[in-house]
Amino acid sequence: QTNSPRDRILRERAAYVIPGGMWGHQRAAALPSGYPQYFSSGKGARVTDVDGREYIDFMCAWGPVILGHLHPTVEAAVAQQSAQGVCLNGPTEHAVTLAERLVAMVTHADWALFQKNGSDAMTTCVTVARAETGRRKVLVAHGAYHGAVPWCSPSLVGVTSEDRAHLLHFTFNDTASLAQAVEAAGEDLAAIVVSAFRHDLGVPQEMPSAAFAKAARAACDYAGAALIVDDVRAGFRLNLAGSWQTHGVAADLSAFSKAIANGHALAAVTGNDRFREAASRVFVTGSFWYSGAQMAAAIATLDELSRIDGPAVMQRAGQRLRDGLDAQAAHYGFELRQSGPPAMPLVQFNGDDATATLGDAFCTEALRRGVYLHHRHNMFLGTAHTDAEIDSALDATEGAFAALAKTRPLPSGEAA
Ligand code: PMP
Predict the structure, then answer these.
(1) What predicted TM-score, i.e. pTM, was given to this entire model?
(2) Are residue 126 and residue 231 in the same domain, yes or no?
(3) Mean pLDDT computed over 87-98
(4) Which of 224, 260, 270, 283 has the least CB density, counted as fewest CB within 10 Å?
(5) Count of domains for the chain
């Protein structure tokens, strides 16, 4: 792409010094054509790539940004702590204050521990569950993502079968398959791990049914196992009290990360009193797990989300986007399948093929018009998505649908 010269040069340089050109889920090679790999800045609901093109951002750094890029209150809290020391010989007082905030905010929480990434937090949950129960088996849903470490990585490259020896699977929202997995684990059941909702890559999202949520809780109670809710992706976007609290179900252990500090690297595990003693015994740590600035950012982020009722703001913005896209799609002869909560939408085209050719083409057209979407992973709304930003995005997607309609015969045979 000649209109992305800086991005192209960086990719060429990276090819020599970064294996595969880029690692992990943010690698642009896996995105629709024309997507930039490198960015230079973000402000509010917008990001700018290294070639100076600005986009209305519906990925929010894949979740971490919830109050908009560079939220002033959060950045002030970070600057204040950073000016006093970045990494010290122990945590700052923010650690205690943040733990107090989480205990007050998250219904099931009697305590909190901090890490850096969601994978750290999920691994800590599993370690604490095994320590408390003295058991080994952990149940996870087929296709669910819980992190990039051997016990749960979606890829088996470089992973041994021993790493996964005590993992059993069930189907999300299928109580019979859950019961089967519980039975297979028998007396060795340490934990059932569930996502806040089903947000697996490339398939329609599903909220947990009330029956499934209650069955998971009941199975853990009966077996004396831990119910672990992986709230890394959804935490603080849907319900500040914890995502499964919406369904009247309290977790024993929850993992949070992504949005907790509006883009600053932090994760948290919360737990109830039953798991407190085990949580004090397990050896979980990291060089950067104590640094204060990110915890200061988290306190500012959670305070702001409570003050403005962030989840309600994002739900409203997401619904405005959803309704707008549905109306445009219908006008141009397409039918969308929009799933999941409006604050974390997945937008798919009915009748699309397995590689999401249509979704892919739509995203490319939207990107050309200044809107950054994703066609296979859920997107993320933030509180910086004002009505005006949503409406600007919808102006662009209108053009994207029109362009798509020109290259694809309409199901009805009519001209758009
Ligand atoms: N659990 C869920 C549900 C996630 O979405 C993610 C990250 N996408 C993780 C765990 C792992 O978090 P991290 O990438 O911060 O290690």
Answers:
(1) 0.96
(2) yes
(3) 98
(4) 283
(5) 2
> To test ligand 1's pocket by mutation, which of 27, 124, 229, 258 has the most ligand atoms within 8 angstroms of CB?
258
Inter-residue contact 362 to 375 (CB < 8 Å)? yes
**pLDDT for the residue 408:** 76
pLDDT of residue 2: 62
Q: Mark which of 260, 279, 307 sits at the end of a domain.
A: 307
Full residue range of the structural domain in which residue 148 is found: 72-307
Same domain, 175 and 98: yes
Domain boundary among 258, 291, 307: 307
ipTM over 0.85: yes
**What atom of ligand 1 comes closest to residue 231's alpha carbon?**
3
Residue nearest to atom 13 of ligand 1 (CA): 118
User: Is the residue at 10 inside a domain?
Assistant: yes
Is any ligand 1 atom within 6 A of the Cβ of residue 378? no
Q: Please report the DSSP string for 352-402 in residue order.
A: --TT-HHHHHHHHHHHHTTEE--SSS-----TT--HHHHHHHHHHHHHHHH
Closest residue by Cα to atom 8, ligand 1, is: 233
Q: Is 256 in the pocket of ligand 1 (CB under 6 A)?
A: no
Determine the pLDDT at residue 182: 98
